[in-house]
Amino acid sequence: MACEKGLKMKIKILFVCLGNICRSTMAEGVFRDLIEKKGLSHQFDCDSAGTANYHIGSRADRRTLKVLADKGISLPHLGRQISTSDFEQFDYIFAMDKNNLLDINLLYSEVSNPKAKVMMMRQFDSTQSHADVPDPYYGEMRDFVEVHDIVKEAIEGFIAHLNANR
Fold first, then answer.
1. Is the pLDDT of residue 101 over 90?
2. Which of 71, 74, 41 is nearest to 59 (CA)?
3. What is the mean pLDDT of residues 78-96?
4. In sequence order, what are the residues at sequence separation of 6 or more whose Cβ sits closer than 8 angstroms to the Cβ of residue 11?
5. Is residue 4 one of the residues assigned to a domain?
6. What is the predicted pLDDT for the residue at 5?
7. Catalytic residues
8. What is the pLDDT of residue 127?
9. How many domains would you assign to the chain?
């Protein structure tokens, strides 16, 4: 972590999917919950965004909120679209799938001094490091539960990676 006047700066994480109501919001909620349970909230800030502008200002999908609530997680997030300033403000930007990654990288190319490291969400998933996080939007509740489990596995791997590389 970078230091400024002896103070540790927070690591800033952004989770990105297409509309910012299913996968990225699920990841944001899971990340917030995990770092709180691990006593690491003071070390991180996180947010989520979409590559498209479909759901700006909207709450997460009701099924995302239900899965999170069933795990004891609340999420007050309102949908927003990723912007060029995110590449200067965040340390890590996680794409949920390869199409999102392409869109993120197009926007990344417009930034003159990017700080963020862009990667796939499942890069730290011990079983499926190159796979996409499936989009549950047109699916059933079980698809949202699966997304929860996938992002939790990847986030736990990411946190372990950060701890191992301090």
1. yes
2. 74
3. 98
4. 1, 43, 44, 45, 91, 92, 162
5. no
6. 45
7. 17, 23, 135
8. 86
9. 1
